[in-house]
Amino acid sequence: MDDSRRHRTIIFCKPYRVLCSFTDREGRSTLADYIDLPDVYPAGRLDYDSEGLLLLTSDGKLAHLVTHPRFKLTKQYLVQVEHIPTGAALDELRRGVLVKGRRTRPADVELLSEEPDIFPRHPPIRYRKSVPTAWLKIGLREGRKRQVRHMTAAVGHPTLRLIRIAIGPVSLGNLQPGQWRDLTPTELRQLWAALRLPPGRKRPRK
Question: What's the average model confidence in pLDDT over 13-18?
């Protein structure tokens, strides 16, 4: 039997203020409030105050490859920031900025001309009439802790809302907060294809 068929991999739309774990000593909301499946665990994480796409799988090999920095799967985010970034600020984000003494890798950054058609957050961000906001689409090929928030703050535009919409070829689509579904066979094939190493390269050790 194909090894991938013995495992289960799902895509989950993580709501705001939900932990990427199944337990919490402090009583905060966790994945267990939404997902009742045996032996699936997050392949990567999203911050407590971030939203959107999270992959969970029972396949330890797949989880390891998805999170390993060697494969550089592009992770795409919709990011609402304070004020309207200038062209210079956008270029700085694209080139890389210093975060805790290390420069981030080059990123794909687009200033959206209008608010994206995305589900509302509960509770909504605090609206301030004197502070305009803008939406960015950011693609990263690395996954440092709270990286997007640190990057936008470094160029003077604090992040107000952060939603992950894609990991490699897998997109959030129309899933709403708290909903999940199995990856389709096509999505799984595309994900494995994106993780394929070039000839002559060895797979990373666990």
Answer: 98
For residue 5, the model assigns a pLDDT of 62
Strands (E), the chain: 9-14, 41-42, 51-57, 75-82, 98-99, 102-103, 108-111, 133-140, 159-167, 170-171, 180-182
Q: What domains sit in the chain, N to C, each tagged with a CATH number? A: 3-70+169-194 (3.30.70.580), 74-166 (3.30.70.1560)
- Residue 77: name the closest of 57, 100, 54 by CA: 54
pLDDT averaged over every residue in the chain: 92
Higher pLDDT, 33 or 5: 33
Beta strands 51-57 and 159-167: pairing type? Answer: parallel
Find residue 137's DSSP bridge partners: 78, 110
Centre a 10 Å sphere on the Cβ of residue 110 and count the other Cβ atoms it contains: 12
- Stated pTM of the model: 0.91
Query: Cα separation of 60 and 158, whole Å?
Result: 35
Would you please indicate which residues are annotated as catalytic (active-site) residues?
47
